[in-house]
Amino acid sequence: MSIQLRDSSLLKTQGYINGQWVDADNGATFDVFNPATGEKIAEVASLGADETRRAIEAAEAAMQDWKARPARERSVVLRRWYDLIMANQEDLAILMTLEQGKVLAESRGEVAYGASFVEWFSEEAKRVYGDVIPAPQTDRKAIVVKQPVGVVGAITPWNFPNAMITRKAAPALAVGCAIVLKPAAETPLSALALVELAERAGLPAGLFSVITGKDSRAIGGELTSNPTVRKVTFTGSTPVGKLLMKQSAETVKRTSMELGGNAPVLVFDDADLDVAVAGALAAKYRNSGQTCICANRILVQDSIYDAFVEKFVEKVRGFRLGNGLDENATHGPLITAKAASGIQDLVDDAVEKGATLNTGGRQDDLGECFYQPTVLSGVTDNMRIAREEIFGPVAPIFRFSDEAEAVRMANDTEFGLAAYCFTRDVGRVWRVSEALEYGMVGVNETALGSDVTPFGGMKESGQGREGSKYGLDDYLEIKYICMGGLA
């Protein structure tokens, strides 16, 4: 299909290594499809381990000058990158909707969200401070400095093909690192457009390479085994994250992992019901349910359960599925037909075990990647949907009787990324927020992410934080310098 952009040069189909657009060494390519229509939208170079190795070598060479530059110079380049991203917001949104499926309004929002990390870290680049520690002896000084960790290998997912890149690349580049990126094979076009804009912003060659390819095992294996790579950052599933951590252990790399979730929404009987319904809807159905912090379990107190379900179902029935390019559509397709089929299995299992199907519950006639926004009530913890990450537009609603039971149910999972709580009791706000075993807790609010706040989880949902002033820490080494002979 023909892709209409204001700036057609943003549509790239080659990999990007050391400032050059390159084909795969063996000429291999892979196809990128629009999940809404099934149409092929691009044929992209499929690179492998050898190309990844060359990108790593180029990164190591390029960062020697980059890390030595004054922070202000790095800041200026990143700020230009931010300006270019925002100037090309519409084209970037169109590319994202075509390859990922989300509606244009969400794509535009993601481009702005992704750009906010570039802006934030362009500013934070100038604020990497050290310390002078009072020494125990009078003849010496204890100095602490922070230095870039080294070459960074990054692997990013398809559900946020812009923001998950900038949230890693911006802090890495800000402190003086170089980065080699493997974007998801489903959504390479967003990554390639971003690096094109980074080049236009004046980012020196070699500092940011993009390895497009289907052979994740080969590319990931090179990133985790190559001793020149000193850090691996990954956003994706917990099983893959565990594998990357094991592989990285051989060379004792730093890792930061943003992994799976099983986010609960706790709705207490003193909550503002309309606020809780609106918040749960946003948390559940954003990006058609394909986010790691989506509401995976909605826990509602007995006395308001029926009223909540009634209001919630009424709103869901007003959603409109459609092609993401249709401005009237509220929700787009899932990324693949396999994803839709897997969600159907979860819904069927829940219904067979006694859940009530209130609305939706099947793949839609629009196409094999479309799954109807679905609500299940009467869900219990013996159903698969209670323990598995849904990653689709299905809202399972559970009952609880009191605060202790709600917290127990919420924490009964190996995951700990995000949780949400709706209540007007200030004491409960603090008790529940501190009791929930999650890296992020939203109270009467489900829009958690921003450039100024830390994003990350506990338990098997990962390690490290992205965004905020803490987002630089994973890309820096702390060095202690003892200066003696000063008496």
Question: What report would you give on this structure?
Answer:
The protein has 487 residues and is of the alpha/beta class. It has two domains: 8-259 and 461-480, Aldehyde Dehydrogenase, Chain A, domain 1; 263-456, Aldehyde Dehydrogenase, Chain A, domain 2 (3-Layer(aba) Sandwich). It has 13 helices and 22 strands. The strands form six sheets. Strands 14-15-16-13-12-18-19 form a seven-stranded mixed beta sheet, with helices on both faces. A hairpin with a 7-residue loop joins strand 5 (131-133) and strand 6 (141-148). Helix 4 (104-124) runs parallel beside helix 5 (163-175). The longest helix is centred in the first third of the chain and has 21 residues, at 104-124. The radius of gyration is 23 Å and the shape is globular. The model has no long low-confidence stretch (mean pLDDT 97). One of its GO terms (biological process) is gamma-aminobutyric acid catabolic process.
